[in-house]
Amino acid sequence: MPVIARFYGIAVKMYFKEHGVPHFHAVYGEFNGVFDIKTLEMIEGDLPPRAQRLVREWAKTYRDELAKMWKRREYKQLPGLE
User: Fold this and answer.
1) In angstroms, rounded to a whole number, what is the distance separating the alpha carbons of residues 27 and 31?
2) Which of 27, 31, 43, 81 could form a disulfide with 58 if both were Cys (CB 3.0 to 4.6 A apart)?
3) What pLDDT is recorded for position 54?
4) pLDDT(17) > 90
5) For the whole model, what pTM was predicted?
6) Three-state SS at 34
């Protein structure tokens, strides 16, 4: 699964072979979270609350790009959270 962004020890990844709602994965150490692109809610996982907040903050900026990647099934490297 390609990493599309990294920031504060969090790796954001996306699978295109998965089904269901458009989503992305966030990995922080041994913790994982799956986030719905439209709502930015964590729909699965055990990511700590602080990491969830950072991921949502980042995803608000790149939500449109994430949706385009999911729809086109084309990876694009995105900047991290500054």
Assistant:
1) 6
2) 81
3) 98
4) no
5) 0.93
6) strand
